[in-house]
Recover the amino acids of this structure.
Protein backbone atom coordinates (compact mmCIF):
# COMPACT_ATOMS: atom_id res chain seq x y z
CA UNK A 1 0.00 0.00 0.00
CA UNK A 2 1.48 3.37 -0.98
CA UNK A 3 2.07 5.60 1.98
CA UNK A 4 0.26 8.87 2.57
CA UNK A 5 3.03 11.12 1.39
CA UNK A 6 3.32 9.33 -1.95
CA UNK A 7 -0.38 9.61 -2.50
CA UNK A 8 -0.38 13.26 -1.68
CA UNK A 9 2.44 13.93 -4.16
CA UNK A 10 0.63 11.93 -6.76
CA UNK A 11 -2.55 13.96 -6.32
CA UNK A 12 -0.61 17.20 -6.58
CA UNK A 13 1.10 16.13 -9.79
CA UNK A 14 -2.16 15.05 -11.41
CA UNK A 15 -3.67 18.35 -10.38
CA UNK A 16 -0.98 20.32 -12.13
CA UNK A 17 -1.34 18.11 -15.20
CA UNK A 18 -5.02 18.93 -15.20
CA UNK A 19 -4.22 22.62 -15.09
CA UNK A 20 -1.95 22.29 -18.08
CA UNK A 21 -4.39 20.29 -20.18
CA UNK A 22 -7.15 22.70 -19.28
CA UNK A 23 -5.03 25.64 -20.39
CA UNK A 24 -4.10 23.85 -23.63
CA UNK A 25 -7.74 23.17 -24.30
CA UNK A 26 -8.60 26.82 -23.94
CA UNK A 27 -5.73 27.94 -26.12
CA UNK A 28 -6.78 25.42 -28.76
CA UNK A 29 -10.36 26.70 -28.61
CA UNK A 30 -9.21 30.25 -29.23
CA UNK A 31 -6.90 29.18 -32.05
CA UNK A 32 -9.60 27.02 -33.54
CA UNK A 33 -11.87 29.99 -33.93
CA UNK A 34 -9.17 31.89 -35.76
CA UNK A 35 -8.31 28.91 -37.94
CA UNK A 36 -11.94 28.41 -38.83
CA UNK A 37 -12.30 32.06 -39.71
CA UNK A 38 -9.37 32.01 -42.10
CA UNK A 39 -10.60 28.75 -43.61
CA UNK A 40 -13.94 30.37 -44.22
CA UNK A 41 -12.40 33.55 -45.61
CA UNK A 42 -10.47 31.54 -48.18
CA UNK A 43 -13.48 29.61 -49.39
CA UNK A 44 -14.90 32.13 -51.91
CA UNK A 45 -11.59 32.29 -53.74
CA UNK A 46 -11.22 28.53 -53.93
CA UNK A 47 -14.80 28.04 -55.09
CA UNK A 48 -14.62 30.61 -57.84
CA UNK A 49 -11.23 29.45 -58.89
CA UNK A 50 -12.43 25.89 -59.21
CA UNK A 51 -15.52 26.95 -61.10
CA UNK A 52 -13.46 28.85 -63.66
CA UNK A 53 -10.89 26.09 -63.92
CA UNK A 54 -13.58 23.47 -64.37
CA UNK A 55 -14.96 25.43 -67.32
CA UNK A 56 -11.54 25.94 -68.83
CA UNK A 57 -10.42 22.41 -68.27
CA UNK A 58 -13.56 21.04 -69.85
CA UNK A 59 -13.03 23.06 -73.03
CA UNK A 60 -9.29 22.56 -73.40
CA UNK A 61 -8.75 19.32 -71.50
CA UNK A 62 -9.42 16.93 -74.36
CA UNK A 63 -6.91 18.35 -76.78
CA UNK A 64 -3.29 17.28 -77.05
CA UNK A 65 -2.10 20.82 -76.55
CA UNK A 66 -3.41 20.85 -72.98
CA UNK A 67 -0.70 21.64 -70.44
CA UNK A 68 1.04 18.77 -68.74
CA UNK A 69 -0.30 19.78 -65.37
CA UNK A 70 -3.80 19.01 -66.57
CA UNK A 71 -3.17 16.14 -68.93
CA UNK A 72 -0.50 14.38 -66.91
CA UNK A 73 2.77 13.08 -68.23
CA UNK A 74 1.14 10.16 -69.93
CA UNK A 75 2.20 7.63 -67.35
CA UNK A 76 1.58 7.10 -63.67
CA UNK A 77 4.66 5.22 -62.59
CA UNK A 78 6.04 7.63 -60.06
CA UNK A 79 3.79 8.98 -57.33
CA UNK A 80 4.58 11.85 -55.03
CA UNK A 81 2.74 11.84 -51.74
CA UNK A 82 2.67 15.21 -50.03
CA UNK A 83 1.87 14.45 -46.42
CA UNK A 84 0.75 17.50 -44.51
CA UNK A 85 0.62 17.25 -40.74
CA UNK A 86 1.06 19.46 -37.72
CA UNK A 87 4.28 20.71 -36.20
CA UNK A 88 3.17 19.80 -32.72
CA UNK A 89 1.77 16.75 -31.03
CA UNK A 90 -0.75 16.35 -28.23
CA UNK A 91 -3.65 16.58 -30.60
CA UNK A 92 -5.21 13.14 -30.34
CA UNK A 93 -5.21 11.01 -33.45
CA UNK A 94 -4.79 13.94 -35.82
CA UNK A 95 -1.24 13.31 -37.00
CA UNK A 96 -1.35 9.56 -36.83
CA UNK A 97 -4.53 9.26 -38.85
CA UNK A 98 -3.05 11.30 -41.69
CA UNK A 99 0.16 9.29 -41.50
CA UNK A 100 -1.81 6.07 -41.51
CA UNK A 101 -3.74 7.04 -44.63
CA UNK A 102 -0.49 7.95 -46.38
CA UNK A 103 1.12 4.69 -45.29
CA UNK A 104 -1.78 2.59 -46.58
CA UNK A 105 -1.75 4.46 -49.89
CA UNK A 106 2.01 4.07 -50.26
CA UNK A 107 1.75 0.35 -49.58
CA UNK A 108 -1.05 0.00 -52.11
CA UNK A 109 0.95 1.80 -54.78
CA UNK A 110 4.03 -0.23 -54.07
CA UNK A 111 2.10 -3.46 -54.48
CA UNK A 112 1.05 -2.23 -57.91
CA UNK A 113 4.70 -1.79 -58.75
CA UNK A 114 4.73 2.00 -58.74
CA UNK A 115 7.53 4.11 -57.40
CA UNK A 116 6.56 6.18 -54.40
CA UNK A 117 8.19 9.38 -53.21
CA UNK A 118 7.20 11.22 -50.07
CA UNK A 119 7.37 14.92 -49.33
CA UNK A 120 6.46 15.80 -45.78
CA UNK A 121 5.11 19.08 -44.52
CA UNK A 122 5.15 19.35 -40.76
CA UNK A 123 7.45 17.63 -38.33
CA UNK A 124 5.03 15.16 -36.83
CA UNK A 125 4.19 13.44 -40.07
CA UNK A 126 7.85 13.08 -40.82
CA UNK A 127 8.49 11.43 -37.47
CA UNK A 128 5.53 9.11 -37.86
CA UNK A 129 6.52 7.92 -41.32
CA UNK A 130 10.26 7.79 -40.84
CA UNK A 131 10.37 4.14 -39.85
CA UNK A 132 8.22 2.72 -42.65
CA UNK A 133 8.79 5.12 -45.51
CA UNK A 134 11.99 6.86 -44.47
CA UNK A 135 13.89 5.70 -47.54
CA UNK A 136 11.26 7.26 -49.80
CA UNK A 137 11.57 10.78 -48.42
CA UNK A 138 12.56 13.32 -51.02
CA UNK A 139 12.12 16.43 -48.97
CA UNK A 140 10.63 18.13 -46.00
CA UNK A 141 9.04 21.53 -45.53
CA UNK A 142 9.23 23.02 -42.10
CA UNK A 143 6.45 25.31 -40.96
CA UNK A 144 7.38 25.48 -37.31
CA UNK A 145 8.56 29.07 -37.69
CA UNK A 146 5.29 30.17 -39.22
CA UNK A 147 3.08 32.04 -36.82
CA UNK A 148 0.15 32.61 -39.08
CA UNK A 149 -0.41 30.60 -42.22
CA UNK A 150 -0.47 32.74 -45.32
CA UNK A 151 -0.88 32.15 -49.00
CA UNK A 152 2.86 32.60 -49.42
CA UNK A 153 3.46 29.42 -47.39
CA UNK A 154 1.26 27.51 -49.80
CA UNK A 155 3.03 29.13 -52.74
CA UNK A 156 6.39 27.98 -51.41
CA UNK A 157 5.18 24.41 -51.10
CA UNK A 158 3.59 24.57 -54.54
CA UNK A 159 6.82 25.94 -56.00
CA UNK A 160 8.75 23.04 -54.54
CA UNK A 161 6.26 20.51 -55.89
CA UNK A 162 6.08 22.14 -59.32
CA UNK A 163 9.82 22.35 -59.77
CA UNK A 164 10.03 18.64 -59.03
CA UNK A 165 7.28 18.05 -61.57
CA UNK A 166 9.06 20.11 -64.20
CA UNK A 167 12.21 18.18 -63.43
CA UNK A 168 10.33 14.98 -64.25
CA UNK A 169 10.65 13.57 -60.77
CA UNK A 170 7.11 12.27 -60.60
CA UNK A 171 3.94 11.78 -62.63
CA UNK A 172 1.16 12.03 -60.08
CA UNK A 173 0.99 14.11 -56.92
CA UNK A 174 -1.43 13.55 -54.10
CA UNK A 175 -1.78 15.67 -51.00
CA UNK A 176 -2.78 14.20 -47.65
CA UNK A 177 -4.49 16.35 -45.09
CA UNK A 178 -7.34 16.29 -42.66
CA UNK A 179 -10.65 17.82 -43.57
CA UNK A 180 -12.33 19.71 -40.78
CA UNK A 181 -15.94 18.74 -40.15
CA UNK A 182 -16.37 19.73 -36.52
CA UNK A 183 -14.45 19.60 -33.28
CA UNK A 184 -14.82 15.86 -32.84
CA UNK A 185 -14.72 14.82 -36.49
CA UNK A 186 -11.83 15.33 -38.85
CA UNK A 187 -11.56 13.24 -41.97
CA UNK A 188 -8.12 12.32 -43.28
CA UNK A 189 -8.29 12.97 -46.98
CA UNK A 190 -6.17 12.25 -50.03
CA UNK A 191 -6.55 14.65 -52.94
CA UNK A 192 -4.83 14.42 -56.28
CA UNK A 193 -3.42 17.75 -57.39
CA UNK A 194 -1.31 16.78 -60.40
CA UNK A 195 -2.67 16.06 -62.94
CA UNK A 196 -5.31 18.46 -61.79
CA UNK A 197 -8.96 17.69 -61.56
CA UNK A 198 -11.52 20.34 -60.77
CA UNK A 199 -14.98 20.01 -59.43
CA UNK A 200 -17.36 22.71 -60.40
CA UNK A 201 -18.97 23.50 -57.08
CA UNK A 202 -21.01 26.40 -58.37
CA UNK A 203 -22.01 24.95 -61.68
CA UNK A 204 -24.71 27.49 -62.38
CA UNK A 205 -23.13 29.61 -65.07
CA UNK A 206 -21.58 26.85 -67.12
CA UNK A 207 -23.79 27.73 -70.05
CA UNK A 208 -22.18 31.15 -70.50
CA UNK A 209 -19.68 31.27 -73.34
CA UNK A 210 -16.63 33.26 -72.39
CA UNK A 211 -14.18 35.22 -74.40
CA UNK A 212 -10.67 34.47 -73.34
CA UNK A 213 -7.91 37.00 -73.20
CA UNK A 214 -5.20 35.94 -74.02
CA UNK A 215 -6.04 32.47 -75.39
CA UNK A 216 -7.64 29.68 -73.38
CA UNK A 217 -4.41 27.72 -73.42
CA UNK A 218 -2.38 30.65 -72.19
CA UNK A 219 -4.78 31.31 -69.33
CA UNK A 220 -4.84 27.69 -68.40
CA UNK A 221 -1.06 27.47 -68.44
CA UNK A 222 -0.95 30.53 -66.22
CA UNK A 223 -3.58 29.36 -63.80
CA UNK A 224 -2.75 25.69 -63.35
CA UNK A 225 0.30 26.31 -61.13
CA UNK A 226 -1.88 28.66 -59.11
CA UNK A 227 -4.43 25.90 -58.84
CA UNK A 228 -1.84 23.73 -57.14
CA UNK A 229 -1.06 26.54 -54.71
CA UNK A 230 -4.75 27.12 -54.06
CA UNK A 231 -5.38 23.45 -53.37
CA UNK A 232 -2.42 23.33 -51.02
CA UNK A 233 -3.52 26.51 -49.29
CA UNK A 234 -7.00 25.24 -48.59
CA UNK A 235 -5.54 21.95 -47.42
CA UNK A 236 -3.23 23.83 -45.05
CA UNK A 237 -6.11 25.82 -43.63
CA UNK A 238 -8.31 22.76 -43.22
CA UNK A 239 -5.41 21.06 -41.53
CA UNK A 240 -4.93 24.02 -39.21
CA UNK A 241 -8.56 23.96 -38.12
CA UNK A 242 -8.53 20.18 -37.78
CA UNK A 243 -5.40 20.24 -35.68
CA UNK A 244 -6.84 22.72 -33.22
CA UNK A 245 -10.16 20.89 -33.15
CA UNK A 246 -8.46 17.57 -32.49
CA UNK A 247 -6.28 19.11 -29.82
CA UNK A 248 -9.25 20.71 -28.17
CA UNK A 249 -11.17 17.46 -27.85
CA UNK A 250 -8.06 15.52 -26.86
CA UNK A 251 -7.29 18.02 -24.12
CA UNK A 252 -10.91 18.04 -22.99
CA UNK A 253 -10.68 14.27 -22.56
CA UNK A 254 -7.38 14.56 -20.77
CA UNK A 255 -8.78 17.14 -18.37
CA UNK A 256 -11.72 14.91 -17.58
CA UNK A 257 -9.53 11.88 -17.07
CA UNK A 258 -7.29 13.84 -14.76
CA UNK A 259 -10.34 14.91 -12.76
CA UNK A 260 -11.48 11.32 -12.41
CA UNK A 261 -8.02 10.25 -11.36
CA UNK A 262 -7.88 12.95 -8.73
CA UNK A 263 -11.21 11.80 -7.31
CA UNK A 264 -10.04 8.22 -7.19
CA UNK A 265 -6.73 9.10 -5.59
CA UNK A 266 -8.42 11.35 -3.05
CA UNK A 267 -10.70 8.52 -1.94
CA UNK A 268 -7.71 6.21 -1.68
CA UNK A 269 -5.85 8.85 0.28
CA UNK A 270 -8.70 9.32 2.76
CA UNK A 271 -9.09 5.57 3.20
CA UNK A 272 -5.41 5.12 3.94
CA UNK A 273 -5.48 8.03 6.34
CA UNK A 274 -8.38 6.42 8.18
CA UNK A 275 -6.61 3.09 8.23
CA UNK A 276 -3.54 4.69 9.72
CA UNK A 277 -5.60 6.37 12.44
CA UNK A 278 -7.45 3.15 13.22
CA UNK A 279 -4.15 1.30 13.39
CA UNK A 280 -2.73 3.82 15.81
CA UNK A 281 -5.83 3.63 18.01
CA UNK A 282 -5.67 -0.15 18.07
CA UNK A 283 -2.02 0.04 19.07
CA UNK A 284 -2.76 2.49 21.88
CA UNK A 285 -5.73 0.51 23.17
CA UNK A 286 -4.01 -2.82 23.05
CA UNK A 287 -0.99 -1.23 24.70
CA UNK A 288 -3.21 0.09 27.47
CA UNK A 289 -4.90 -3.29 27.89
CA UNK A 290 -1.60 -5.05 28.28
CA UNK A 291 -0.71 -2.96 31.34
CA UNK B 1 -31.29 48.34 -68.12
CA UNK B 2 -29.23 47.58 -65.12
CA UNK B 3 -26.63 50.25 -64.59
CA UNK B 4 -24.71 48.48 -61.89
CA UNK B 5 -23.20 45.03 -61.61
CA UNK B 6 -22.00 42.90 -58.78
CA UNK B 7 -18.28 43.29 -58.21
CA UNK B 8 -16.28 40.88 -56.06
CA UNK B 9 -12.62 41.14 -55.28
CA UNK B 10 -11.24 38.09 -53.54
CA UNK B 11 -7.74 37.04 -52.61
CA UNK B 12 -6.84 33.56 -51.35
CA UNK B 13 -6.75 34.79 -47.79
CA UNK B 14 -9.90 36.83 -47.65
CA UNK B 15 -12.61 38.54 -49.59
CA UNK B 16 -11.73 42.22 -50.01
CA UNK B 17 -14.72 43.80 -51.61
CA UNK B 18 -18.19 42.88 -52.65
CA UNK B 19 -20.34 45.74 -53.90
CA UNK B 20 -22.29 46.92 -56.89
CA UNK B 21 -20.22 48.92 -59.32
CA UNK B 22 -20.95 50.89 -62.45
CA UNK B 23 -17.58 50.31 -64.07
CA UNK B 24 -14.36 48.53 -63.26
CA UNK B 25 -11.07 49.22 -64.92
CA UNK B 26 -8.82 46.17 -65.05
CA UNK B 27 -5.12 45.80 -65.81
CA UNK B 28 -5.57 42.91 -68.24
CA UNK B 29 -2.59 40.90 -69.41
CA UNK B 30 -3.13 42.09 -72.99
CA UNK B 31 -3.93 45.65 -72.02
CA UNK B 32 -6.21 47.61 -69.77
CA UNK B 33 -9.90 47.15 -70.15
CA UNK B 34 -12.99 48.54 -68.55
CA UNK B 35 -15.89 46.32 -67.72
CA UNK B 36 -19.36 47.78 -67.46
CA UNK B 37 -22.72 46.09 -66.95
CA UNK B 38 -23.68 43.74 -69.80
CA UNK B 39 -20.10 43.32 -70.86
CA UNK B 40 -19.57 40.21 -72.99
CA UNK B 41 -18.59 37.23 -70.80
CA UNK B 42 -14.81 37.28 -70.64
CA UNK B 43 -12.05 35.66 -68.68
CA UNK B 44 -8.75 37.44 -68.65
CA UNK B 45 -5.54 37.15 -66.72
CA UNK B 46 -4.20 40.23 -64.99
CA UNK B 47 -0.80 41.82 -64.87
CA UNK B 48 0.32 43.74 -61.80
CA UNK B 49 -1.40 47.08 -61.81
CA UNK B 50 -4.14 49.26 -60.47
CA UNK B 51 -7.73 48.19 -60.46
CA UNK B 52 -10.27 51.02 -60.40
CA UNK B 53 -13.79 50.46 -59.22
CA UNK B 54 -16.47 53.03 -59.85
CA UNK B 55 -19.51 52.63 -57.72
CA UNK B 56 -22.47 54.91 -57.04
CA UNK B 57 -21.02 55.50 -53.57
CA UNK B 58 -17.69 56.61 -54.98
CA UNK B 59 -14.68 55.01 -56.55
CA UNK B 60 -11.92 52.98 -54.99
CA UNK B 61 -8.59 51.69 -56.19
CA UNK B 62 -6.72 48.50 -55.47
CA UNK B 63 -3.24 47.37 -56.25
CA UNK B 64 -3.32 43.82 -57.60
CA UNK B 65 -0.38 41.59 -58.41
CA UNK B 66 -1.72 39.27 -61.01
CA UNK B 67 -4.53 36.79 -60.95
CA UNK B 68 -7.52 36.75 -63.20
CA UNK B 69 -10.95 38.25 -63.71
CA UNK B 70 -14.15 36.62 -64.75
CA UNK B 71 -16.72 38.91 -66.33
CA UNK B 72 -20.33 37.85 -66.67
CA UNK B 73 -23.08 40.05 -68.02
CA UNK B 74 -24.29 40.86 -64.55
CA UNK B 75 -21.17 40.60 -62.47
CA UNK B 76 -17.42 40.64 -62.27
CA UNK B 77 -15.18 38.58 -60.05
CA UNK B 78 -11.53 39.39 -59.66
CA UNK B 79 -9.39 36.69 -58.16
CA UNK B 80 -6.16 38.39 -57.27
CA UNK B 81 -3.18 36.75 -55.70
CA UNK B 82 -2.52 39.80 -53.63
CA UNK B 83 -4.68 42.88 -53.48
CA UNK B 84 -4.18 45.95 -51.35
CA UNK B 85 -6.36 49.07 -51.26
CA UNK B 86 -4.27 51.83 -52.82
CA UNK B 87 -4.67 54.05 -49.77
CA UNK B 88 -2.84 51.44 -47.70
CA UNK B 89 0.02 50.89 -50.12
CA UNK B 90 3.29 52.28 -48.93
CA UNK B 91 6.67 52.59 -50.50
CA UNK B 92 7.89 49.54 -48.61
CA UNK B 93 5.09 47.36 -50.02
CA UNK B 94 6.17 48.33 -53.46
CA UNK B 95 9.84 47.89 -52.71
CA UNK B 96 9.09 44.36 -51.57
CA UNK B 97 7.22 43.62 -54.77
CA UNK B 98 9.93 45.12 -56.95
CA UNK B 99 12.61 43.25 -55.05
CA UNK B 100 10.69 40.02 -55.50
CA UNK B 101 10.25 40.63 -59.22
CA UNK B 102 13.93 41.51 -59.52
CA UNK B 103 14.97 38.36 -57.70
CA UNK B 104 12.89 36.19 -60.01
CA UNK B 105 14.32 38.06 -62.99
CA UNK B 106 17.84 37.36 -61.80
CA UNK B 107 16.95 33.73 -61.18
CA UNK B 108 15.44 33.46 -64.64
CA UNK B 109 18.54 34.98 -66.24
CA UNK B 110 20.62 32.22 -64.68
CA UNK B 111 18.54 29.66 -66.56
CA UNK B 112 18.45 29.47 -70.33
CA UNK B 113 14.73 29.63 -71.04
CA UNK B 114 14.29 32.93 -72.86
CA UNK B 115 10.52 33.14 -72.36
CA UNK B 116 10.88 32.94 -68.59
CA UNK B 117 13.48 35.71 -68.66
CA UNK B 118 11.16 37.85 -70.77
CA UNK B 119 8.23 37.19 -68.47
CA UNK B 120 10.27 38.10 -65.43
CA UNK B 121 11.57 41.24 -67.11
CA UNK B 122 8.02 42.23 -67.96
CA UNK B 123 6.94 41.63 -64.38
CA UNK B 124 9.78 43.77 -63.12
CA UNK B 125 8.91 46.54 -65.56
CA UNK B 126 5.26 46.33 -64.53
CA UNK B 127 6.17 46.65 -60.89
CA UNK B 128 8.40 49.62 -61.49
CA UNK B 129 5.83 51.32 -63.67
CA UNK B 130 3.35 50.83 -60.88
CA UNK B 131 5.58 52.73 -58.50
CA UNK B 132 5.95 55.60 -60.95
CA UNK B 133 2.25 55.64 -61.59
CA UNK B 134 1.46 55.96 -57.94
CA UNK B 135 4.20 58.55 -57.53
CA UNK B 136 5.58 56.93 -54.43
Amino acid sequence: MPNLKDLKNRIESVKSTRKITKAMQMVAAAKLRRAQESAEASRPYAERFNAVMAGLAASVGGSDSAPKLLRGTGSDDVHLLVVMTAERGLCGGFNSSIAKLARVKAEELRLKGKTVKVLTVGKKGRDALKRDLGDLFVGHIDLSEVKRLGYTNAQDIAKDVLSRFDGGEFDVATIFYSKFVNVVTQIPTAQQVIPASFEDTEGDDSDAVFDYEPSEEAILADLLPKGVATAIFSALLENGASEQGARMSAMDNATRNAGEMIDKLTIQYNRSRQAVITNELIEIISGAEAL
Amino acid sequence: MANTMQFDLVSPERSLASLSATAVQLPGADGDMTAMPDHAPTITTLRPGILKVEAPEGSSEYLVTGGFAQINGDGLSVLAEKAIPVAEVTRSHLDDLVAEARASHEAAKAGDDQTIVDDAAKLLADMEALGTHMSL
Observations:
- Chain A touches chain B at residues 38, 41-42, 44-46, 48-49, 52, 56, 150-151, 154, 205, 208-214, 218-219, 222-223, 226, 229-230, 233 (CB under 8 Å).
- Chain A has a mean pLDDT of 87.
